[in-house]
Design brief:
heterodimer, A: alpha+beta, Ribosomal Protein L22, Chain A, 2 domains, 5-stranded antiparallel β-sheet, 10 strands, globular, B: mainly alpha, Non-ribosomal Peptide Synthetase Peptidyl Carrier Protein, Chain A
Chain lengths: ~200, ~80
């Protein structure tokens, strides 16, 4: 189970004062609000926790029929600074815990979760220009990455979305990797892992 | 308020957050916020807050969970304002 989420900080605003408090109360549990307060209540922490939760939501919803909008059904239990701009968050969903790795820059927050093994997954963040079709641009980046780093040729691969809109990479009829893609504003990102 | 008035109000609320103009122009009861209008999930919270302000209602977590499309949002708003 893999999932990833990217937040473009330049277009992420939650307002101030009362609006901000109402916004936070809709997406975070009381425990999470305490964590955010302790960290200093900056927007960056809000989007870090949010993207960590979103990445787990994407991982667990891969096989779900019904899409729900229940941000509080996922809860960040803890957050650790691993190095410079890298953070590790533990997120709980339905009694199960997920480790999420997040990278923060001054422009974006990118979070990745991989239930099996982080060492076997590859993730990339890239910019998408405003005249590009986002979905096509991300597909192209993923296929370019694979064709550059593996024996598989670009022209023989394709990305298809299933009925849950989850993308799958094929080489002919064979599925190559588990894939999760995301985009927000000027950023696109993906994570992929070997098919077991 | 009839259904068309309600749809018109919702249409005005979601406008700042939509990323698919064509789906927006064709907005109807079946339109889904994330899949069709391509509203970012973080902006869906803004839609909920704007709905609360516009109709002077409070939307609980259980209700927010269902507000993924125009139809379910209309049902929840109608139920709330008739109370």
């Amino acid at each position: 189970m893999i999932g990833n989420d990217i937040v473009d900080l330049s277009i992420s605003h939650i307002g101030e004062g009362e609006r901000r408090a109402r916004y936070l109360a809709k997406i975070f549990t009381e425990k999470e609000c305490v964590i955010i307060d302790q960290l200093g209540n900056d927007d960056m922490w809000i989007w870090l926790l949010w993207s960590a939760k979103e990445s787990v939501y994407k991982a667990v919803s891969r096989n779900e029929q019904v899409i729900r909008y229940a941000p509080k059904s996922l809860e960040c239990l803890s957050i650790k600074n691993k190095s410079n701009s890298n953070y590790e968050t533990t997120v709980e969903y339905n009694g199960e815990q997920f480790v999420v790795l997040s990278h923060v820059s001054d422009k974006y927050v990118h979070s990745v979760t991989n239930k099996s093994n982080f060492n076997q997954s590859i993730s990339e963040v890239f910019t998408i220009s405003s005249n590009e079709n986002e979905s096509e641009a991300i597909d192209h980046k993923v296929l370019m990455y694979i064709s550059t780093n593996t024996k598989y040729e670009y022209k023989n691969m394709s990305i298809k979305r299933d009925r849950h809109r989850v993308p799958h990479i094929y080489h002919g009829d064979k599925e190559l990797y588990y894939l999760s893609m995301s985009h927000h504003g000027q950023f696109g990102a993906f994570v992929l892992t070997e098919n077991h | 308020m009839n259904n068309q008035e309600l749809i018109d109000k919702l249409k005005k609320i979601v406008k700042p957050y939509i990323q698919n103009e064509e789906a927006y122009d064709n907005l109807n009861e079946e339109t889904k916020f994330i899949e069709d209008l391509k509203i970012n999930s973080a902006n869906l919270v803004d839609v909920i807050l704007d709905v609360e302000d516009e109709f002077d209602i409070e939307i609980g977590d259980d209700e927010m969970e269902q507000m993924m499309d125009v139809k379910s949002s209309m049902d929840i708003i109608t139920k709330k304002i008739s109370k």
